[in-house]
Amino acid sequence: MRVVLGALWMISLASLAAPAPLRFSVSDSWGMPMAQLEGNRPTQGILYDLMLSLATQVGRPAEFHVLARARIANAMAQGDIDVRCYVAQAWVDNLSGDYSWSVPLMVQRNVLASTHTAPHTVQVATLPAQSIGTVLNYRYAALEPLFANGQLTRDDSRSEELVLLKLVAGRFEYAVINEWILDRFNLNLPPNQRLQKVAIIDEQSLGCIVRNDPNVPVQQILRTLLRMKMSGEINDIIKLYTGEEAQTLHTPDKN
């Protein structure tokens, strides 16, 4: 009995000493180079490396929760997730709960992709009525007026990769896609079959949100993300997977 009680006591002490994991949300719609999902967990990619490095520097084990994008906000509100990365404030304007935002960490550029090369940049506002490829539960603020008036209709897929596969298969003429994911997808296609960027839809500064909770080291997380950004670590992670420097917001020519 003493041996059993001693073992239980040691297990109890070990549990108390082990830091609680830092729980990250992972959208099941992500694709490379943002994240590779295998067996319902991320294994590589920009966001995987970023979150894993963050947890390591904070001194917590990383725990990844793969969820449908529509369920992530509710999971955070219920306290099941501590940190959500790769998010813009415009995407969560009705966010409920007490959260802190990190500094902007990267820029996402959504482009209009097509199977054919346009003779000039496509003017999205003048496209004839048609369906275009989109990702389920993704918000495209720049296109909302065109969806609302029926000029464009969403053809949703569960992931960005499925959107591109449908575009290649001819399901629609155009698709809205993350530029990095498009570039990665094109690497697996023969040069004469690669998808073309025919317009820039929008650009968003993205960061992380952290749930304000006494058990979550919020300020340490925010300071670490700032340090990762300022030191160039995040830029190095992006360059590792894309071969490019981190994007910056495009400033339109005033002339």
UniProtKB/TrEMBL annotation:
Keyword Signal: yes
Signal sequence coordinates: 1-17
Keywords (A to Z) from UniProt: Signal
Similarity comment: Belongs to the bacterial solute-binding protein 3 family.
Name of this protein: ABC transporter substrate-binding protein
Annotated source species: Pseudomonas poae
Organism ancestry: Bacteria, Pseudomonadati, Pseudomonadota, Gammaproteobacteria, Pseudomonadales
